[in-house]
Design brief:
42% of the residues lie in helices and 13% in strands. It is of the alpha/beta class. A 7-stranded mixed β-sheet has the order 3-2-1-4-5-7-6, sandwiched between helices. Helix 1 (8-39) packs antiparallel against helix 3 (61-72). The longest helix has 32 residues, at 8-39. The protein is globular.
Length: 284
């Protein structure tokens, strides 16, 4: 993702807002857990239920670190508060959940904190950048990923992918699918083995010709979402939709019919699992 510059005034206001979001997420998640705990006991066990509920209010180490970080740092996430709130609203209903994030940066500690007791995994192309961020926040779960695409190939990839059967909706898969160049084949096993409730695409870099671009990340997110076996939809959030390639690939694979919210440069899609009884056709 980009390494943006921030004005002190903007940084201060957003840092305060982010700290409030994290504190709110902490209180909200523990309130829900407390209600669940109390409702599972009879009246005779009310005292022990209250004690157990009180214990649930302990913040996670990552949440405490995140509050301290954003309350004291002048460097804040690239997304605006309005854009962040779109994902936060979904996390409030789905957390603890499995949250996959393409990109690692100044927002990573925040995303982990907003999904307490869930799994939040970050995929980043630049190993040096991973070291820089993880050195400051060692609790983050981050992996380096290699991409097989370049941004300058975007137009050709969109024109030719339909000629490869293993890129088609009914046959596409990721692990070991070297014939489909849009498939991310070298991800950690954890990515392939889990079902992801939320997927955020805010990387890799896509603002110069030799950059990997987000074509493969968008395609792979759709393949994962369509392969979902659990109930419900997969929430996919795509940032930087003001750029031509992001918008073009979103309309090809994520589909306008699945777009449920657009705020600033962020689009929120709800992708249903593929209906195995359907045959033919393409992603949209």
């Amino acid at each position: 993702m980009k390494r943006p510059q921030f004005t002190p005034e903007k940084s201060c206001l957003l840092a305060v807002a982010l700290s409030g979001l994290i504190i709110g997420a902490f209180l909200f998640s523990n309130l829900i857990r407390s209600v669940d705990n109390i409702s599972s006991f009879g009246l005779c066990s009310l005292a022990s239920a209250k004690a157990r509920a009180a214990a649930d209010y302990d913040a996670t180490p990552t949440q405490l670190q995140s509050i301290l970080h954003y309350a004291t740092s002048k460097i804040v996430p690239q997304q605006s508060l309005a854009e962040i709130s779109v994902t936060f609203d979904v996390l409030k209903t789905r957390s603890p959940c499995n949250f996959l994030v393409f990109g690692l940066g100044f927002d990573s500690l925040m995303w982990t904190s907003l999904n307490p007791h869930g799994t939040t995994l970050f995929l980043e192309e630049d190993p040096k950048w991973v070291q820089t961020i993880v050195r400051k926040a060692p609790t983050l779960n981050a992996h380096t990923v290699q991409y097989r695409t370049q941004l300058q190939e975007a137009n050709n990839l969109l024109k030719t992918y339909r000629s490869e059967p293993l890129c088609s909706p009914g046959k596409a898969y990721l692990r070991g699918n070297y014939k489909c160049k849009l498939a991310l084949t070298g991800l950690p096993d954890e990515v392939y083995d889990k079902e992801w409730d939320l997927i955020m695409i805010d990387a890799p870099r896509g603002y110069f010709p030799e950059a990997p671009g987000r074509m493969a990340a968008i395609f792979s997110a759709v393949v994962m979402a369509r392969g979902r076996k659990g109930s419900g939809v997969t929430h996919v959030f795509l940032h930087d939709v003001d750029r031509r390639v992001e918008k073009m690939f979103a309309e090809e694979f994520l589909c306008r019919k699945n777009l449920v919210k657009a705020v600033g440069r962020l689009w929120h899609f709800e992708i249903p699992a593929a209906n195995v009884s359907q045959s033919g056709g393409w992603f949209c």
